[in-house]
TrEMBL record, chain A:
Primary location: membrane
InterPro entries noted in UniProt: ATPase_P-typ_cyto_dom_N, ATPase_P-typ_P_site, ATPase_P-typ_TM_dom_sf, ATPase_P-typ_transduc_dom_A_sf, ATPase_P-type_domA, Cation_Transport_ATPase_IB, HAD-like_sf, HAD_sf
EC number: 7.2.2.21
Pfam families xrefs: E1-E2_ATPase, Hydrolase
Record keywords, A-Z: ATP-binding, Cadmium, Cell membrane, Hydrolase, Membrane, Metal-binding, Nucleotide-binding, Translocase, Transmembrane, Transmembrane helix
Location(s) in or outside the cell: Cell membrane
Protein name: Cd(2+)-exporting ATPase
Any one GO cellular component localisation term in the record: plasma membrane
From TrEMBL, chain B:
Residue span(s) of domain HMA: 1-69
The name this protein goes by in its record: Heavy-metal-associated domain-containing protein
Gene Ontology terms for molecular function: metal ion binding
UniProt-listed InterPro entries: HMA_dom (IPR006121), HMA_dom_sf (IPR036163)
Pfam family, one: HMA
Length: 622, 72
């Protein structure tokens, strides 16, 4: 509790004691002996002022500023009304109850705000710089690129940079949700916001603070609040009309029925007061954004950045998810998958291919050399000739070797056996004799299959894969991990067209997400309803273009965001329905004289508190 | 120019919304955002007018929610 809240608590206690005393006196009949009602009025006025003086003060001040319809004014009118009809104890009780509710509400909001900001607490406070052999603490903002900073064990890494000395384990959990620490030693890049483990590191700073990963993430998180969900906009609009409508109804209720039906004004004014107390839309105005904030907080705990509550809302309605293949579902690393020798040994074929591809730096060549794994003696390789779009002809140990695709084999008149495997196929021939084929393909990410399964479990109807790869390769990957639809052999520009086609197939509120690694697919990320990018630990382009960023590139977490989004939306809707129906009910009962002040105050602050507590559940979703 | 300010004692969400609306109406302000949850205010305004804008912002906020202080 802060100072203000403590002060309020003391006032509540004093007012409560005084009021309780009066109630006891009243029960014992001591107050009946007072002849003049004005004395009674003064007696009740004491606890009333103790508990409510600030309300009256604020109401008066706000009216002078032209702000008429605020809670303070309404509470003042309502309790003055109670005094006016000589319900003294009710006036005090209502004010007391209202203040208790307000205190509780401010405490709950403060608490929840605290727990969210604690979680976002990745901002480094200082950096250590070595000057003349002494360590000095400076503001990370003042450190220039190229400076050497020292990060002691347990400290937060203040700036992005490259390790120049030392070795340590780095805890990236705050950024990625990944609990296994990463090893960093000389030459490794490290990013700000992570926590250093047990070793001391000397780091050469590579980015200024405002461009560093941590500054970028903090900015994203702080701006998340400005992109509002439809539900939030609805509430803001609703709040604008709600208060004036209820207040005008209250005035009408106070004067119209007694003028038409006759009867006393007192009774109707009391009913009107009930209206006034309920007229604040606070429960809604607080709890809806708080719920979304909690949902965004829960996602970032898992290493998923959601850039606004509108995107969280969209994720909850996501039914189609489109993947880019390379880098998203596959690692983007080529590996030899199959060796199919024909009339020779596996080793022989591989050795020949490795020697033949010895000079090339193409990823395919590199993967063959890696599969061979032994040192390559380039003295054995003679003259080489590259045949564009087909392959190469090269002399190995004085013999003519051909390595390439089907075209090369056909053109050179080699009787080869066409290979149906998925992936890139390199055929080999030596001295015009077919030696066999080597199949190379991208490796599927561990967990990709499980990720697709879990997305289906949370209700994603269609998983689509887009790729520039060959049909066979694409289909094989799709089959293995359970993708429903494949569009292969696409040029980069075709991806946008395909996504647009898929967007047209969506019905009603259904949303489409595109998942990419952020390289070359920024236009697609923007075009889709939800662009999900692989954060790749700080790839700026991806972070900027996307709406949702997976900090550790784990597609498996998409299902988790969907779950969080759905639950958040459910909580928000519960709050709206709960708050509106309680208010509507009490308004209705109040109009017919069936509700009293107590119920009215509950419909105001009580509902707020319950809605806030409910909204906080969004933060705890796992 | 975009600048961020911390807010103190911003107690009610409805007031934050009212403040935001009032600030947006100030001449020279392109966009404004008052976050009740972060207790922060972002103002995007014309560079040359920024000082005047801030004076006006303080005035407007004092009108809407006198308890709330802007930490400049």
């Amino acid at each position: 509790m802060n100072k203000k809240q403590k002060k309020m608590l003391v006032r509540i206690i004093i007012a409560f004691v005084l009021f309780a005393g009066l109630l006891v006196c009243g029960h014992m009949g001591l107050l009946e002996s007072i002849e003049h009602t004005w004395i009674l009025f003064v007696v009740y006025l004491i606890p009333y002022l103790v508990i409510g003086y600030d309300i009256i003060f604020k109401a008066a001040r706000n009216i002078s500023h032209g702000q008429v319809f605020d809670e303070n004014f309404l509470m003042m009118i309502a309790t003055f009304g109670a005094f006016g009809v000589r319900e003294y104890s009710e006036a005090v009780a209502v004010m007391l109850f209202y203040q208790v509710g307000e205190l509780f509400q401010s405490y709950a909001v403060g608490k929840s705000r605290q727990s969210i900001s604690d979680m976002m607490d990745i901002c480094p406070e200082y950096a250590n710089i070595e000057v003349d052999g002494l360590l000095t603490r400076v503001d990370p903002d003042d450190v220039e690129i190229g400076s050497i900073i020292v990060i002691k064990p347990g400290e937060r890494i203040p700036l992005d940079g490259v390790v120049v000395e030392g070795e340590s384990l780095i805890d990236t959990a705050a950024l990625t949700g990944e609990s296994v620490p990463r090893r960093a030693s000389k030459g490794d890049e490290i990013i700000s916001g992570c926590v250093n483990g047990s070793g001391t590191l000397k780091v050469r700073v590579s980015k200024e603070f405002e461009d560093s990963t941590v500054a970028k993430i903090l900015e994203l998180v702080e701006n998340a609040g400005s992109k509002k969900a439809k539900v939030e906009n609805f509430i803001t609009k609703f709040a604008k009309y709600y208060t004036p409508v209820v207040t005008i109804s209250a005035v009408a209720l106070a004067f119209v029925p007694p003028l038409i039906l006759g009867g006393s004004f007192g009774e109707w004014i009391q009913r009107a007061c009930i209206f006034l107390v309920i007229s604040c839309p606070c429960a809604l105005v607080i709890s809806v954004p708080l719920g979304f904030f909690g949902g965004i907080g829960a996602s970032s705990k898992l290493g998923i950045l959601v850039k606004g509550s509108n995107y969280l809302e969209a994720v909850a309605e996501m039914t189609t998810i489109v993947f880019d293949k390379t880098g998203t579902l596959t690692k983007g690393e080529f590996k030899v998958q199959e060796i199919l020798p024909e009339g020779c040994g596996r080793e022989e074929l591989l050795e020949m291919a490795a020697l033949g591809e010895g000079y090339s730096n193409h990823p395919i060549a590199a993967s063959i050399r890696e599969a061979y794994g032994k040192n390559i003696n380039m003295n054995r390789v003679g003259q080489a000739e590259e045949i564009a779009g087909e392959g190469i002809r090269i002399l190995v140990d004085g013999r003519e070797v051909l390595l390439g695709n089907e075209k090369l084999m056909t053109n050179k008149g080699i009787a080869y056996i066409p290979c149906e495997s998925a992936g890139t196929v390199v055929y080999g021939a030596c001295e015009e004799r077919y030696m066999g084929a080597i199949v190379i393909s991208d490796t599927i990410k561990e967990g990709a299959k499980k990720a697709i399964q879990s997305m289906k479990q949370v209700g994603v109807k269609k998983c689509v894969m887009l790729t520039g790869d060959r049909q066979q390769a694409a289909r094989a990957v799709a089959r293995e991990i359970g993708i429903d639809q494949v569009h292969a052999e696409l040029l980069p520009g075709d991806k946008v067209t395909k996504v647009e086609e898929l967007l047209k197939e969506q019905q009603g509120k259904e949303k489409l997400a595109f998942v990419g690694d952020g390289i070359n697919d920024a236009p697609v990320l923007t075009r889709a309803d939800i662009g999900i990018a692989m954060g790749s630990m700080g790839s700026d382009a991806a972070i900027e273009a996307a709406d949702v960023v997976l900090m550790d590139d784990d597609v498996g977490k998409i299902a988790a965001v969907v779950k969080i989004a759905r639950k958040t939306l459910r909580i928000v809707k519960q709050n709206i329905i709960f708050a509106l129906s309680v208010k509507a009910l009490v308004l209705l009962l109040g109009a017919f004289g069936l509700a009293n002040m107590w119920e009215a105050v509950f419909a105001d602050v009580g509902v707020s508190v319950i809605a806030i507590l409910n909204a906080m559940r969004a933060l705890k979703i796992k | 120019m975009k600048r961020k300010f911390k807010l103190e004692d911003l107690d009610c969400a409805n007031c934050a919304a009212k403040m935001e609306e009032a600030i947006k109406k100030i001449d020279g302000v392109n966009d404004a955002n008052v976050s009740f949850l972060a207790q922060k205010m972002t103002i995007d305004g014309q560079d040359e007018k920024f000082d005047e804008i801030m004076k006006e912002v303080v005035k407007v906020c004092a009108k809407v929610e006198p308890d709330c202080r802007i930490l400049l």
